[in-house]
Write a structure and sequence with these properties.
The chain has about 210 residues and is of the alpha/beta class. The chain contains eight helices and five strands. It starts with a strand and ends with a helix. It binds ligand Z5A. The site of ligand Z5A has 26 residues, from helix 1, helix 4, helix 6 and helix 8.
Amino acid sequence: MLGRFISLEGGEGVGKTTNIAYIQSLLEEQNISVLLTREPGGTPLAEAMRQLLLDKNQEEITEQAELLMMFAARAQHIKHVIKPALERGVWVLCDRFTDSTYAYQGGGRAMDITTIHWLENFVQGELRPDLTLLLDAPVQVGMNRAAQRGKLDRFELEKITFFEKVRQAYLALAEQQPERIKVVDATQTLELVQASIHQSISQFYL
Ligand code: Z5A
């Protein structure tokens, strides 16, 4: 693999979408080719699965089906988008990846971590992000920001306790893997958030 793989993580409304273009511009200033993508999604089939996963107006999706759909979409994404880009030397910048599964399905839904770990190895082989930026903020801060957008999807209808568990699961991952996962205080102004991101990204490519 010649390219590098960077993922952006965090609870809803913490600023992932806002900051991903900023990271792209930082890398492109260094003449690095970048591919922006997201999960669930990133290929036509995976995007169709995303629609199903976020749609609240359908039959209840079981926890098992939700977990398997996340990894099914990921399998498509890795094979058709992520690996080919990395092999061409392009850096991949992904809005959410498997840490989201550990946080939402493992933390929020309390699903068995061993099963998630098994699926991670099965679907990804040795592929893991080289760097992950975790945008962290108290749940209410992200929810207030996300609420400004209006309509809520299937995940956003969960109770606050669900998102508290998601946040704690993310912070536990960052504590376990401090080399890969850099926590950014997302409660700061956008200017300060981007200064922290700049620092982590510069340390990474220098
Ligand atoms: N999911 C899962 O369960 N398992 C998995 O394995 C995967 C995903 C991969 C879809 O994700 C759902 O899939 C997600 C988890 C689940 N559900 N939830 N919740 P998504 O990424 O599409 O959904 P999201 O997390 O809700 O994204 P988001 O709401 O778009 O959040 P964001 O991208 O982090 O935030 P943003 O749109 O950039 O910013 C929100 C607003 O805040 C916006 O108006 C900004 O202008 C503003 N903002 C941003 N930064 C700041 C600062 N620093 N100050 C003030 N205002 C700010």
